[in-house]
Amino acid sequence: MSESKINISGSYLIKALLILGGILAVFYVGAGLLMPLLVAVIIAILLDIPTKKFKQWGLPNWLSITLSVVLMLIAFFLLSWLISSQINNIAGDWPKIKDKASEKLNNLSQWANQNLNWDYQNYIENNKRLVQKTESLATAFLSSIFNLLSQSLIIFIYVILLLMQKRMFIGFFKKLSSNSAAMGSLLSESAKIISSYLLGKSKIMLFLFGIYYLGFTLGSVPFALFLALFAALFSIIPYVGNFIGGGIAVVLSYLYAGSTPALIVIGVITAAQLVENYILTPWIIGDEINLNPFMTVFGVILFSTLWGMVGAIISLPIIGVLKVIFEHTKGMEAYAHLLKRNDS
After folding, report:
1. Which of 108, 180, 292, 305 could lock onto 174 through a cystine, CB 3.0 to 4.6 A?
2. Which residues have C-beta within 8 Å of that of residue 215, sequence separation ≥ 6?
3. Which residues pair with 166 in a beta bridge?
4. Would you give the DSSP letter of residue 280?
């Protein structure tokens, strides 16, 4: 062979794998400590935007922080009230939904046995167990939400302290590097990615909620408000979120009201997704994050495995910050290239 061999140290690769494995182990074992902290950091970065605006209006630092936190609490309680009220509505009709689900599954199994020559024995009991398993999954999903809400107090305290000690933390990170200008650029770009993505995603979610609710209401889809809210909230999870939220909305509408409402839900969600993917996302978010789709999906699966639904939600901002860190760190350019979208 005339070509020289690639000069990559085997010990370097082993060290990289050990470091990566160690970080993942710390993330998994220390989930109860690290997850609320990272959520608080992301919220504090978002709240820093109105805090700066209040300061520009001449308000003191403590009052600017207080007003920003009050706005966050108002939005949090309104969203919590809306979600809980819709869950209560679903819970009241849950026995009816279970009966209809079992009936439709039994009819489908009977049709398959008669027309597809399936030999599906004991399908009534099996379908009943399937419905029960689905109920247990829904219970686990709700428990993960309540688990996050149970940590809201410590997250709230973290957010206030992070906003109050903002300059101290920035100074700490700048002192870690001999090039304080480069570290300052890294911090500002990381904050810009987090705020731009989440604020843009929030605007898109509001649009999707409006389109879903209008379409479901005009189509007389049952639980229109809940299904619209559910599908819109799940869209915050990149790629898989729309599939999960929209799929559950379709299944629930079909089980409760039949095929016509389910087809309406499919049509509305498909039209809204086309508008989101080709108009709203390029216009509102653009190429601010610019992540490789493969690494994005892998990151969502990885963080959802480590931290559940919360991990899936915050995965993209975390991966975006990692890309910025790699871009600003000497010798880590290859990892930044791996995370960056390359259309060519």
Report:
1. 180
2. 264, 267, 268, 271, 272
3. none
4. I
